[in-house]
Amino acid sequence: MERRDVVIVGAGHAGVQAAALLRQNGFAGTIRLISDEADAPYERPPLSKEYLAGEREPEKMLLRKETFWDDKQIERQFGRAVAVDAPAHVVRLADGTEVGYGRLIWAAGGGPRRLTCGGHDLQGIHAIRTRQDVDRLREELPGAQRIVVIGGGYIGLEASAVLVKQGKDVTLLEATDRVLSRVAGPDLSAFYHDVHRAAGVKLRFGARVDCILGESWATGVQLAEGEVLPADMVIIGIGIVPAVEPLLAAGAKGGNGVHVDANCRTTLPDVFAIGDCAAQESPFAGGMRLRIESIQNANDQAAIVAKLLTGKSLPEPVLPTFWSNQFSLKLQTLGLSVGHDATVLRGKPEEGSFSVLYLKDGQVIALDCVNAVKDYAQGRMLIQSGARFDARRLADTSVLLKELVQEIA
């Protein structure tokens, strides 16, 4: 059995960044990066946007040049990790191969949450998580005109935006009463509802799927009340299931993600977890434990582990950031709106440039900025100040956000 000083499971943004930062911080030991995708590590965010639209080539999505791995002496191995023997410090792969480790960094992300209703396994049903997922989807697109998208989060909206621009008949189903209901306030939801409806997307709320119809191929979606929506293709965008079963089976604490401390340590010895699969208490959410699915969080957690393993000073917690491109709109989010008790609308949504500020006890804790780069750039100062602001001043677009911070300094 081979043994490496550091074994990293998962070659997404978190895993690749961890490997790169270990070398950057002077780690001289052996590193092996294990991935369940044979392709060279690539960016995932373009999958539901530019790559789906055919506007980004695979080679333009690589996280690192091919020469990087040999130059930095980072081994890559194809395989799916299915078990961890924590006392023996061993990872077992699906083909029976075992790899020993001194330290294990679990960055396995997660898989798309699937439907469990009748017809869930028919052909013509797609998720958007890997490049292969989108390659299959794109192959079938020429023969698909009526497309039903299930899920009104970022993935569902981004995919709908791409497909309706291609002339497809798109119906989006959302189980709650608005799009982006889990991540944004009503103002932002209403704006994106209107944008998608104006572009031709048919939106249905409170939609409960009973089953997918068809023999071998999906031909329609039947709702709980019996209505049937004809479909040539169905796209599922209802979140991910964190890939943590091997860690939990090995005794790690967790549930919806594996629990990690402030330094990304799991409860297993010498095992860390980073990225989409790691559930960590956030100082930006009142200490609530949650998984943060973003590139920025993946990179920041990778930096923590890399510095810890090389004896460097650990970085301070970083304010979470997110983004989404739909049509000509760029949404940039700062902070976490969890627990907010008030919102302030800054700007005019009908003009296509505005921000929504989320407040708790008068303090700004998060911002959603749509085509509002200045607000996004300056909003960090509002949050970090910890000050209480007058809602009327926050809404006044004639006053720059940085000026409000300067007033209290």
**Could you say which overall geometry the principal axes of the C-alpha atoms support?**
globular
**Secondary structure tally, helices:** 10
Query: How helix-rich are the residues, as a percent range?
Result: 10-25%
Low-confidence segments, given as residue ranges, are: none
Q: What structural category do the secondary elements indicate? A: alpha/beta
Could you please describe the fold and organization of this structure?
This protein is of the alpha/beta class. The chain has ten helices and 26 strands. It has helices spanning 13-24, 66-71, 131-140, 154-165, 186-199, 245-249, 295-309, 373-385, 391-395, 401-408, and strands at residues 2-9, 31-35, 74-78, 81-85, 90-93, 98-106, 110-112, 125-127, 146-150, 169-174, 202-205, 209-213, 220-223, 228-230, 233-236, 240-242, 254-255, 257-260, 271-273, 278-281, 289-291, 321-326, 329-335, 342-348, 353-360, 363-370. The strands form six sheets. Strands 1, 2, 3, 4, 5, 6 and 19 form a seven-stranded mixed beta sheet that branches. Helix 1 (13-24) packs parallel to helix 7 and helix 8 (373-385) packs parallel to helix 10 (401-408). The chain starts with a strand and ends with a helix. The model has no long low-confidence stretch (mean pLDDT 96).
